Amino acid sequence: MKHMNSEVKEERTSNKKRIDLFLVPIVLIAAFLNLFKIWTDEYANAYYTAAVKSMLQSFHNFFYASFDPGGYVTIDKPPVVFWIQTISAKIFGFHGWSVILPQALAGIGSVLLLYVLIKRTFGVWAGRFAALAMALTPIVPAVSRTNNIDSMLVFTLLLATWMLFRAVRTVKFGWVLAAFAMIGVAFNMKMLQAYMVLPAFYVFYVVATKITWKKKIAFLTTATALMLAVSVSWAVVVDSTSADKRPYMGSSQTNSVLELAFGYNGINRLTGNTSVTGSSHKQPAQTEQQTASSETKQNSNSSADSSQSSNQRKSSFSQKMQAPGGGNQNGMFNTGNPGPFRLFQKGLSDQISWLLPFVIFSIVGLFAGVKFKGPYTAKQKESLFWLAWLLPVAVFFSIAGFFHQYYLIMLAPPIAAFAGAGAVALWSIYKQHNDWKSWLLPGGILTTAALQVYIMSPYVSSIGVAPIAGVGALGVILALVLAIRKQRKNSLTNYLGAAAMVVLLAMPAYWAMTPIIYGGNSMLPSAGPDSSSGMGGPPSTATNSKQSGFNGMQPPGSSSGNSSSNNQMQPPSGSSNSGQMQMPGGSSNNSQMPNSFSSKSSSSKRKSGGMNAEVNQKLLNYLTKNNTGEKYLFATTDSTSAAPYIIKTGKPVMAMGGFSGSDPILTVSKLKAMIKKGEVKYFYLSGMGKGGQSDVITWIKENSKEIPSSKWQSTSSSAQQGPSGNGTLYEITLK
Q1: Which residue, 62, 279, 512, 630, has most beta carbons within 10 Å?
Q2: Tally of CB atoms within 10 A around 353
């Protein structure tokens, strides 16, 4: 900490032409958190991994990001990240780790980019602290260890930020265009979420650029036009292509990318109206996943233990089947209840909010004495940029109707930036001033330690009392000692300041390691002692700690050997640990086995796709043997049952209703035509995810013959459990 004053400028100059040795361990920490043991995740997010398998097979599938090799339906996101994953799989071979690798590298790259962005203006120590805070923000490695999009999105937006800062420094229009074009690329990763940083870009460019207002308006208008053009470029090509020459746009209601972008992946996230049933009225967000939840079956096992287990699961499932923020104290998917303090509620606070009080004190310190009319220093201008990133995103997550915990990675860059810049700024103020501002450092330490105690308190049964008491006691002691020793310039004070930063980063560091220690979830990434469940909240009360999903849930055609397995409660496909409903592309239960790093592991490979991560080999053998040239191996209601078979075989499997089974893709007349053409004849129906295709399913049942379960249903008690449950196999042949 003693280098945070006059030495900062000198050290910044001396480090320009050599490697910063302090940065090396920070990068190694980030690399460990993002890369270690990713090779144990065999399927990753199976929904996306199946798409990569399909995209490897043809340019047609590659361009449209087709979920299945037959080009029937796309995934629910634009293709840029999946293009990168497919290229990685092409280079390194198709593995779970090869589709995760780009996101893991992006997580490391974000740490480096933040260091570069902060170091130039705020000093090398600020850059180091910011990079370390970014690396240790728990949700960052949790997401980066999966094939979900958000890690790559954040890296792309930070790259755009670097371009914008360069545009301001050089006053070159080309860099402005490049920065906004990069946001357009980010739009083609996760659509409107990329635009959350636009307020920061506009405000910073207007305030920081030393050109006339006329040029500012002209440059920003042109750059925005370019951003919009890049954003909709792929959408325009897809939407202008005849529907019969491309896959259906998954999770849309009108087979349109633009509708998907501005509805399902846009405004509906704010309003919580994520219904995909085509109805005009709002429905709870969970209906996006499965509208056939009313068909869930209860366990009829006469065993008292089994009955009790079923009732517990049913109760948990019912509690989670509520609109966001309604009734359940943890909100939908543990995202809390909307309100100004939502980010401090359990389920969200332990993912992102560990340093928020310190950030608030840092913002006060960085803007202390600033006049509205300026002039502004470079530090104040860049602080304004990070504030204009932080506030709108924080407000969105405070009021949004629907999102997942891992979306909070969007808050990581500004929080880490203020943590780094603020540490140096508050230390300087503490050493040089004797007014109210000198209390900001001990105040920030004290309140941050208090919040961390609050965050950890629900996990006392998992982590024990010692770390909670330790952080609380050390935080109070260090804050009080620093308050008492104000303006005493000696080495002890410097060490106390350094110790305070270590204390505040200790538990975030542990939380960031939990996906490695306890096992991660590639479908619903989160950090914490229950990270393998993907629900990132207080420890589960499940009676079987070795299972993170519903007991009795089986892959297509499998049986646990329990005589009552066919009657066990079946939540909708894609259901998670607690019975919570889920969203496409990051919304299903993890593997039943935790990461092999954990003492509970029984396998060196985790099939953590959560979507029937083990195929029923007997069913596969039957379908393969009896295929007489049909295009599709079989058809099923949704992607949950289809994904593992696509990953395993590389053969087309039709998810008739898209991810959740609710997409209005198929009609009875279309299905008849496909059957007559010899494209499909086998249908696996589990009674889940019917949504808007109830007429199709009814027709299938009325016009098919049921295949005896003895021919295709596995009875192996070691079969991997999954969310689809036991169903029925039908065969239809029309002449």
Answers
A1: 512
A2: 26
Q: Kindly list the averaged pLDDT for each block of 10 residues, start to end, along the chain of length 735.
A: 47 61 96 96 93 98 98 97 98 97 98 98 97 98 97 98 97 97 97 96 96 96 98 97 97 93 81 51 37 35 38 38 38 84 94 97 92 85 97 96 94 98 94 87 96 96 94 95 77 85 96 94 92 62 35 44 36 35 38 33 49 76 96 94 95 94 93 96 78 84 94 65 64 86
What DSSP state is assigned to residue 240? T
The alpha helices in 321-439, defined as continuous H runs, are 349-352, 356-367, 378-399, 412-432
Concatenate the DSSP letters of all residues of 210-223 into one string.
-S-HHHHHHHHHHH
Q: Which two tokens stand for residue 635?
A: 């058809």
For residue 342, what are its two tokens?
């939502």
Helix axes 491-517, 124-136, angle to 10 degrees: 30
The Cα 650–Cα 648 span in angstroms is 6
Q: Which residues contact 645 (CB under 8 A, 6 or more apart)?
A: 615, 620, 633, 634, 651, 653
> Six-digit token pair at 457?
């308190």
Q: CA 478, CA 498: separation in Å to the nearest integer?
A: 10
What's residue 527's pLDDT? 95
Give the CA distances from residue 717 to residues 291, 475, 559, 564, 649, in Å, rounded to whole numbers and listed in that order: 30, 51, 7, 13, 23
Q: How far is CA 290 from CA 134, 274, 286, 662, 689, in A?
A: 36, 11, 7, 7, 5
Q: Cis before residue 375, ω within 30 degrees of 0?
A: yes
Q: Which of 490, 460, 657 is nearest to 572 (CA)?
A: 657
Please provide the distance, in angstroms rounded to a whole number, between the alpha carbons at the two ends of the chain. 81
Burial degree of 39 (CB within 10 A; 0-12, 13-18, 19+): middle
Place of tokens 């796709």: 609
In whole angstroms, what is the distance from residue 721 CA to residue 706 CA? Answer: 24
Whether the CB-CB separation of 430 and 482 falls below 8 Å is answered with yes
Residue-level pLDDT at 608 = 53
Q: What is the DSSP letter of 74?
A: B
Q: Please compute, for residue 160, the number of CA atoms within 13 A of its CA located in the half-sphere on the CB side.
A: 31
Structure tokens belonging to residue 506 = 């200790």
Give rounded-to-5 percent helix, strand, coil for the chain: 60, 5, 40
Of 727, 723, 669, 673, which is closest to residue 696 (Cα–Cα)? 669
Contact 399, 325 (CB under 8 A): no
Distance between CA atoms of 611 and 644, rounded to whole angstroms? Answer: 7
| Separation between Cα atoms, residue 647 and residue 652, nearest integer Å | 10
- Residue of 157, 173, 163 whose CA lies nearest to 216: 173
Burial class (CB in 10 A: 0-12, 13-18, 19+), 523: buried
Q: Which among 182, 97, 190, 86 is positioned nearest to 144, based on CA atoms?
A: 97
Q: What is the pLDDT of residue 537?
A: 57
Preceding peptide of 102 cis, ω within 30°: no
Q: What is the pLDDT of residue 539?
A: 53
CA 724 to chain CA centroid, nearest Å: 23
pTM of the model: 0.84
Is residue 316 a contact partner of residue 575, using CB atoms and an 8 Å limit? no
In what side-by-side order are the strands of the sheet with 705-706? Answer: 654-655, 635-636, 682-685, 728-731, 705-706
Q: How far apart are CA 581 and CA 572, in angstroms?
A: 7
**Tokens at 447, concatenated:** 């309140």
CA atoms within 13 A on the CB side of 363: 16
Type and span of the H or E element at 509 = helix 491-517
Closest CA to 198 of 396, 366, 416: 396
Q: Which long-range contacts (CB under 8 A, 24 or more apart) does 277-283 make?
A: 277/662, 277/691, 277/692, 278/253, 278/664, 278/692
Is 243 exposed, middle or buried, given 0-12, 13-18 or 19+ CB atoms closer than 10 A? exposed
